[in-house]
Amino acid sequence: MNYKIALIKGDGIGPEVVNEAVGVMEAVGKKFGHTFEFVDVLLGGCATDAVGKSYPDGTAEKCKACDAVLLGAVGGPKWGSDKPAEQRPETALLAIRKDLGLYANLRPAALRPAMADACPLKKETAEKGIDLMMVRELTGGIYFGKRDKYQTEDRGLEATDLMAYSEKEIERIGRRAFELARLRRKKVSSVDKANVLETSRLWRSVMHRLAEEYSDVQYEDVLVDNCAMQLVRDPGQFDVVVTENMFGDILSDEASMVTGSIGLLPSASIGDTAPGLYEPIHGSAPDIAGQDKANPIATILSVAMMFRYSFQRAEEANAIEAAVDAVLAEGWRTPDIAEPGVKSIGTKEMGRLIREHI
Ligand code: NAD
């Protein structure tokens, strides 16, 4: 196959980690007989510097003409909150997700076997294994609802943020979760706050309808406060966890912490028709940019997700994940995941070793 990939290298360590991921993609192409056409897309602080805005005209169209998008990271102190919105990298990130209709954010939190020691939880808990997929609704809920701030007569200033969800929005993310569970261990945990929120009660009723339809998948309701607790008590119990935007924002960060390092975790944002967007969960790490210190594994594992979810190529995805695990099992570490005092390797060397294993 020939795949056309949009590359948004972005800012800080973005270009360094994307370059290694591209190298791995090419190694996979050689092994499995695929070719790639890469299209560089300018977005983020680097776009502000080049053309005066972080989300240049025509960005979405360029991406839509590709089979998938790989993003490094955007942002940095140079383009902070004192800048107008159109120059800020975060504006571009929200815009591209919205324009590509990426309503489902998939964040696996898996403890890689060779990294069990990095898990901050009890040894017995880590030994049970952690391999869950957080499915977060990405384009609805309180982050996109109407907001207001006004002066009251007797209570000073007051502010409101509206959380709204439609059955349609809930059903499409729910279906994603059940379909994913069928490819995994066939369990869906749906997280809500149905004892308090009306949106959660609607969420729950739609999920129950889907659970009947996907009767081969085990289903449970989990209240969000309980889920936060269970993620540190016994994360091994979860397979696919599906939830709305704000709960997912918080819980996915919590889930990623229990697996150790931010430099190891990939993510995917997908919609119904447009190309999926794949990116590491970390940011642009300006503190280590340009020093060959960044861990490229999260971006490389994002490419594995691209093969699995955009191209339905599980074999290629497995080969990438196996190569990463093999390199970690041999003891190779970038500085962020190295034990204190242990010699580490750089971004390029880590990329080279993973390519070699493919
Ligand atoms: P960050 O993830 O960039 O960095 C947090 C810490 O983790 C830093 O110490 C950094 O050195 C380290 N780190 C991150 N990725 C690493 C990697 N691959 N290898 C080794 N160490 C790594 O988060 P931050 O410092 O809060 O944000 C920096 C900038 O990134 C900000 O401008 C922020 O807005 C932006 N950001 C972008 C995205 C994105 O592009 N999706 C996500 C989060 C933050």
Element-level helix/strand string: EHEHHEHEHEEEHEHEHEHEEHHH
Q: Which class do the helix and strand fractions yield? A: alpha/beta
How much is the average pLDDT? 95
CATH superfamily of the largest domain: Isopropylmalate Dehydrogenase
Compute the CA-based radius of gyration: 21 Å
Bound ligands, named by name, code or SMILES: nicotinamide-adenine-dinucleotide
Largest sheet: 10 strands, mixed
Shape verdict: globular
Task: Describe, in plain words, how this protein is organized in 3D.
There is one protein chain. It contains 12 helices and 12 strands. The protein is an alpha/beta fold and 358 residues long. It has 2 domains: 1-110 and 265-358, Isopropylmalate Dehydrogenase, CATH 3.40.718; 120-258, Isopropylmalate Dehydrogenase (3-Layer(aba) Sandwich), CATH 3.40.718. The strands form 2 sheets. The protein has a 10-stranded mixed sheet, with helices on both faces. Strands 6-7 form a two-stranded antiparallel sheet. α1 links the parallel β1 and β2 (35-40). The chain is globular. 41% of the residues lie in helices and 20% in strands. Nicotinamide-adenine-dinucleotide binds at residues 13, 17, 73-76, 90, 93, 262-263, 279, 282-288, 294-295, 298, 336.
